[in-house]
Amino acid sequence: MKNIEIDEELYQHIVSNTQAIGENASSILRRLLKLDSSVQQSAPLNKNEIEATEQASLVEKSAADDTEIDIVEKFTSSGESVFNFINKEELAMQRGAVGRFLLILAALYRAHPRQFKVVTEICGRDRLYFAHTEAELEASGSSTKPKQIPESPFWVMTNSNTTRKKMMLTKAATSLGYTQADVEKIRELL
Amino acid sequence: MKNIEIDEELYQHIVSNTQAIGENASSILRRLLKLDSSVQQSAPLNKNEIEATEQASLVEKSAADDTEIDIVEKFTSSGESVFNFINKEELAMQRGAVGRFLLILAALYRAHPRQFKVVTEICGRDRLYFAHTEAELEASGSSTKPKQIPESPFWVMTNSNTTRKKMMLTKAATSLGYTQADVEKIRELL
DNA sequence: GATATGATCGTAGGGATACTTT
DNA sequence: ACAAAGTATCCCTACGATCATA
């Protein structure tokens, strides 16, 4: 993802062409510029079709990268990489970074429920970032805004800027054994 | 100045259209979007809007006050009711009533794109509740908080309590020809 | 300084409720 | 004066950039 700076008026023009809740700038601009979008969002695909498509492209991409064959095979054979638990549309629908953050973490947990506890070691100078209880996080700082990772017994600290949330994701994915390339992909989901 | 986040590929597309050393993003985008560099033009109609407009005028000409028969025929022949466009999980995921409200309206629009314009007649004492543009709603009151109904050319007024939002849904569903029982089901989705 | 981390506080959305109009 | 209907203010919560601190 890249950030560009544009003037107020142009910004309003883009915003006024939003066609879906939570639609991002890229999607709007691609429509306005009549560029192909990688994901066709208006097509009435059902869930199975979407999943099939996403998995296909995932395998394709990973298979092309021969330095990481071992890990790729492990993930794809067990079917347990985060990418199998990520729903792009659900992500896109989130109002802010916190929603996406939690969704990505939930996917990581679902893919690695047993190893997930290693993320517990990721923390700041004083503050804990991940824990099993809300209270632990609250006790480690002020206004940590703990949130439960959906469908998991873990909690995360949420009071940080987006940069730090990305860093947290990066560390978590790395701890769980993802390759540099996949870590990057995960980070960019936020 | 505003910052927007766009994907890598789109960024490259924009960069590759630079026409002067040091040209900024706004300037490039304005050229690509064919926007005047001094005065904001009104947003060009998108495909949906154009289609809706054409369809609307057709309906107007052919069936001015026989809307109901039209609808009944549509139900029985095509079997396209809102319930085919409602995704319960998506609904449940919404943070507040506004999100659900918009999703339900979007489903109603998808099920009845041609007849949907009848909802335009639903309004309060001064405020318009539904319209084709944000500006119309804004002009009809203060802080009306207009929101676009996703994937549709319609906008709704959003600054009301939940009770009124339910009422709006009830009226909309009724106008579109749903039975008392189905109207009730739709209302309760919110 | 320079860097890393913390957490305050400005901003925006949501919608109940107090207020206004009929 | 009272009620009903409708409006929009304003309080609350969430988010996360930015400034404070180590």
How would you describe this structure to a colleague?
2 copies of one chain form a homodimer. Chain A has 2 domains: 8-65, no CATH class; 82-189, Replication modulator SeqA, C-terminal DNA-binding domain (Up-down Bundle), CATH 1.20.1380.10. Helices cover 49% and strands 6% of the residues of chain A. Chain A has helices spanning 8-15, 25-32, 47-64, 69-78, 88-93, 97-111, 134-139, 162-175, 180-187; strands at residues 2-6, 130-131, 147-148, 155-156. Chain A has a 3-stranded antiparallel beta sheet with strand order 2-4-3. In chain A, strand 3 and strand 4 form a beta hairpin. In chain A, helix 6 (97-111) runs parallel beside helix 8 (162-175) and helix 8 runs antiparallel to helix 9. The first copy, chain A, is globular, with a radius of gyration of 18 Å. The first copy, chain A, starts with a strand and ends with a helix. Strand 1 of chain A pairs antiparallel with strand 1 (2-6) of chain B. The structure holds a DNA duplex (22 and 22 nucleotides).
With strands numbered from the N-terminus, the spatial order across the biggest sheet of chain A is 2-4-3
Element-level helix/strand string of chain A: EHHHHHHEHEEHH
What CATH calls the topology of the largest domain in chain A is Replication modulator SeqA, C-terminal DNA-binding domain
Q: Tell me the strand percentage band of chain A.
A: 5-15%
What is the CATH C-level name of the largest domain in chain A?
Answer: Mainly Alpha
Helix content estimate of chain A: 40-55%
Q: How many domains make up the 3D coordinates of chain A?
A: 2
Q: What's the assembly state of these chains?
A: homodimer
Which chains make the largest contact? A-B, 34 and 34 residues
The number of strands of chain A is 4
Please report the distance between the alpha carbons of the first and last residues of chain A.
9 Å
What is the CATH architecture assignment of the largest domain in chain A? Answer: Up-down Bundle
Shape of chain A: globular
At the fourth level of CATH, the homologous superfamily of the largest domain in chain A is Replication modulator SeqA, C-terminal DNA-binding domain
> Major sheet of chain A, described briefly?
3 strands, antiparallel
Summed over residues and divided by their number, the pLDDT of chain A gives a mean of 77
Strand-pairing-aware structural class of chain A: mainly alpha
- Spans of chain A of at least 5 consecutive residues whose pLDDT stays below 50 are 38-77
